[in-house]
Write a structure and sequence with these properties.
This protein has 188 residues and is mostly beta strands. The protein is built from one helix and eleven strands. The protein has a single domain, classed as Immunoglobulin-like. Helix content is 10%, strand content 41%. The chain has a six-stranded antiparallel β-sheet, with no helix packed on it. Strands 1-2-3-9-8 form a five-stranded antiparallel β-sheet, with no helix packed on it. The chain binds protoporphyrin IX containing FE.
């Protein structure tokens, strides 16, 4: 009986160790690497783990051009108030852009042009066969006005978008045509 209990405890400890293992930000997402997964109707898959005061997040998304995600706490006018992250291949290298969506439509502004800075502490992104695999790490709260703090357990409006070229100055297709999506009631 004691042996059985010990075995059960060991098995639970192993499950715990896997459940809380920190994701490796290397541009490849393994089975069970993240605590949470969401498969979106568009085919994109989101992965995330909140670890203390840090968010680790990944996604896969089909796109011939740039791809990105965003979130806002309260919708006032379309995508206004969104924290935006975009990823593009530039000269064969993946580049991450941290931006803020001040206007209801149109181009987000790069944080660095609005008094903020890129808040990702790590990222890795692969674009192969027109499919992105992106992973990044960010503090939940950055203290910057150009970011939207993440409060685990509280609902946000999450956004996905992708372009048809790697130029982040060129918009995604309209949301009615599959270039951008909202996920309501998303909880980090
Ligand atoms: C990760 C990056 C981005 C995300 C998550 C995103 C998300 C969205 C969403 C959800 C909408 C729909 C708004 C609504 O109908 O309520 C939208 C609209 C729009 N976005 Fe973006 N966007 C991103 C990047 C960009 C960029 C880089 C541009 C321009 C260079 C752009 C230009 C536009 C325009 C013009 C609209 C209005 C078009 C429409 O009615 O669908 N967006 N975006």
């Amino acid at each position: 009986m004691i042996r059985k209990l010990l075995a059960t405890t060991f098995a639970l400890a192993l499950v715990g160790a896997f459940a809380f293992a920190q994701p490796v930000i290397d541009g490849a997402i393994g089975d069970g690497e993240y605590a949470n997964t969401l498969e979106h109707d568009s085919g994109a898959v989101l992965y995330w783990t909140v670890d203390g005061d840090t968010l680790h997040m990944g996604y896969t998304m089909a796109a011939s051009g740039w791809s990105g995600v965003g979130w806002l706490t309260e919708q006032t006018n379309r995508k206004a108030g969104g924290d935006i992250l975009m990823f593009a291949m530039v000269d064969g290298e993946a580049v991450a852009y941290d931006a803020y969506q001040a206007g209801a439509r149109g181009e987000p502004d790069l944080d660095e042009n609005e008094g903020g800075s890129n808040s990702l502490s790590a990222f890795a992104a692969m674009h192969e066969g027109d499919v992105w695999t992106v992973e990044f790490t960010r503090p939940l709260a950055t203290g910057q006005e150009t970011d939207v703090d993440i409060v685990p357990g509280e609902e946000v409006l999450f956004m996905l978008a992708h372009g048809n070229t790697m130029d982040i100055g060129r918009a995604h297709d309209r949301s009615t045509q599959g270039g951008a999506f909202y996920i309501e009631g998303f909880v980090f």
